[in-house]
What we know:
Blueprint: H1 3-11, H2 21-37, E1 46-47, E2 62-68, E3 71-80, E4 83-93, E5 101-102, H3 103-114, E6 123-128, E7 131-134, E8 140-144, E9 151-152, H4 159-169, E10 176-180, H5 182-193, E11 199-207, E12 211-217, E13 232-235, H6 248-255, H7 264-269, H8 271-287, H9 293-300, H10 308-314, H11 326-358, E14 365-371, H12 373-377, H13 381-397, E15 401-405, H14 410-421
Parallel strand pairs: 2-6, 5-9, 6-10, 11-14, 14-15
Antiparallel strand pairs: 1-13, 2-3, 3-4, 7-8, 11-12, 12-13
Amino acid sequence: MTERAEAFLERCGMLDPAFDVLTCADRMQLEMKKGLRGENSSYPMIPTYLAAAGNIPDGVPVAVIDAGGTNFRSGLVHFENGHCVEEHVQKCGMPGIGKPATWEEFIRFTADSVEELMSVTDRIGFCFSYSADVTPDIDGRVIRIDKEVEISGCEGRLVGASLTAELARRGLPGKRVVVLNDTAAVQLGGMAKHLHDGYVGCFGQVSGTGTNTCCTVPGEFITKLGPDAYTMLINMESGMYDGLRQGDLDRELDLESHNPGEKHFEKMTAGVYLGELCRRLLRRAGEENLLSVPCFEKILQLPHMDSRLPDTWAVGEGMEELSVSPEDAGLIQDLAAFLFRRSASFMCANLTAMALLTGAGLNGRTAVFAEGSLVQKNHIYRPTLTALLEKHLRQGLGRDVSLVVEEDTTLPGAAAAALLNLK
């Protein structure tokens, strides 16, 4: 990064010279512990009641459902010698996209998707990627359904109980459901797919449109659940962490968001926000006369955008219609790349805090099973995060923790959740 870009970022408060991964990780770990104790914390540390240990049996089919975002998928999954076998997978739009739906319509639609599979299994793994409180019997009580999906009457409904009641009404009683979110599904799906690869521990990471992590935590750490707590997956809701120093543009974006004051970590790391942060940085640079007048005029015409365009700019591509000089191009590239590197450094601190909390990587290999557009497709994010984990965890702390980028783990993860938790 050039001195000009660095000085500009410091003036905007976006470059924190005092930031240190290990110091930040120590602060994060303290917040995680407070969350596990039930104290006020920006890491909610939500119990999933999902056990991640045990043997995943071969040849036992599970009906699986993935409801999240704009797509709905269902199918049948079983495992053979550590390999996931997916059958009868169907993909379609979520009910409530384009046209409002009721909760009853959604549940009937969901029952339709698995009804024919119920002749070969009584277990259902349901990845439900909307806001829900998890109950001790691993059901999900809906808080809200968003992401452009409109389903009325959903608040307070139990996802699994609603589905099993509808199946029983159709003459299919006795079916059992576990409900989990996408980050837990990534961890369990990665674990199931790499069962024989020698990992003794694993984390789940989602770095795409949103940001989140999860990990397995010993029961004695989860004191907010009392003496009956057992070792289980904890959904950390990392995007809510508020201990990072915000820059001018971070605060500006936060104030103009639909949830001001919330999800600071996510707004500084997730793909849905990084494109808009880049646009605002470029506008500020133009206002400070760091870009040519023709280039600034083009930047003023940029619409709200996601991280895809800045991703190409970060590697010096696709700027022909924006920059008019090598100086313009160089600054745009520096600013775009900075945002992705900053995001990766914050995630490295989060993962380091998780390793410190759980002891991961001290007595064998731990995998960070990661999924999402940033970690899968971005040119800067993944290599930066990989290098930072090597520097701070492996070399700095002697922890054997490595990034394992995955794809399409939600269905295997939902199946693994059902096989490990529905005996």
